[in-house]
Design a protein that fits this description.
Number of strands: 2
Helix content: 40-55%
Number of helices: 6
Shape: elongated
Low-confidence stretches: none
Structural class: mainly alpha
Distance between the termini: 97 Å
Length: 187
Amino acid sequence: MGSCIYCGKAAGIFRNKHNSCEERRNQGWSQLIEITRNSILEDKPSESLKKKLEDVAKESFIPASRLEDALVKGWESAVDYFLEDGHLSESQEKLLKKFCNEFSLTQNKLNSRGLYNRFVKGVFLRDIMNGVLTSRLQIQGHLPFNFQKTEKLVWVFPNTKYSEDRRRRHFEGGHQGVSIRIARGLY
């Protein structure tokens, strides 16, 4: 007799979960993401958000260690919502940054599915459309090209290979007959 991985009660022969427990967990996970997203969109305080998330997690058999994942997924959902119209306003940028700072979410965590890069690209596009080119990049190491006086680095795509079309020519020399030395360097 197996035990349910969610509630811990008997699940039946050759079973490790109840369908109702799994459904409750999945609905709870979706609810955590939606609560987080709405908190960002409506700029609600983080203290009440933490409490709500903990309550929903307890009811839905979601361990507290997964709450940070729910915060990241909710942030990603908010980024998708803000970028639906194709641009990111300054107020939307501030809401997203504020949320990241309140919950100490790092760029690596937020970029697990590439949404942090989309967020930053949205900020760059807004700046470019407003005619402002601000340098938000910090490059470590050597860049393989030189800039002209009026050029600025706006975006770097890492691990991109440089491609250049080249024509390769090959010449082979040949001769017929026998070479005889007449003088030094003269045959």
